Amino acid sequence: MKSDSVAFGVAGIAFGLIAGWIIGTEQAKPAAPAAAAAQTTQSSGAASGSSNTRAQLVDDNKVNALKTVAGKSPDDPKPRIELGNLYFDAERYDDAIMWYEQAVKLSPKDENLSTDLGVCYYYTNQPDKALARFDASLKINPKHTKTLLNLGIVLAFGKQDLAGATKAWEQVIAIDPNGAEGQAARRALDTLKTAHAAVGGPKAP
């Protein structure tokens, strides 16, 4: 599963940026940055898809072998998921989307795969499509904590919806209070509270 790349790959950066974003908007009230996704994905690749200059090379032999398998197995999502994973790891998110989308059509009840696709949408500056995909994941499994944690990140940075992000992170804590996702969600909420207090605004619930 690749969707933890948002949840944990950007957590150390993202929660600090939440504070900076709140303070900046409270003090100056500027428009929300259009490239919020890119700002929060420094440890896992900027949100510019396969044209990303930081994109890494993939193993062509492995890619070609998987494409051959995929071509011979049109109903098998596994080689498509593996191809998506390879491109995701190489930060070639547009390419990953192509294969994940094919895999989702073949395996529509896989919440992990659905969320991985949503993460790729987020990394390519498509927050609405990411949120729609997370919604699909949660219809499969309403307690999928990685989806909920990523949902909060996309709401906070992709849509500047801190109330919605707070609700998503609170759900993570309720479901998994002592797990890795629960701890990450708690750090995010603590950052919101501290940031609001720093600018004299109301604390996030």
Overall description:
69% of the residues lie in helices and 0% in strands. It contains eleven helices and no strands. The two termini are 31 Å apart.
Briefly, what is this?
The chain has 205 residues and is mainly α.
Strand content: under 5%
H/I helix tally = 11
**How is the CATH topology named?**
Serine Threonine Protein Phosphatase 5, Tetratricopeptide repeat
Please name the CATH architecture: Alpha Horseshoe
Biggest pleated-sheet summary: none
Structural class: mainly alpha
**Nearest-angstrom radius of gyration?**
17 Å
Query: Could you list the spans in which at least 5 consecutive residues all have pLDDT below 50?
Result: 9-13, 18-53, 199-205
**End-to-end Cα distance:** 31 Å
Indicate the overall shape.
elongated
Overall helicity: 55-70%
Can you give the mean pLDDT? 78
Please give the CATH class.
Mainly Alpha
How many domains, in number, for the residues?
1
CATH superfamily: Tetratricopeptide repeat domain
Order of helices and strands: HHHHHHHHHHH
Number of extended strands: 0
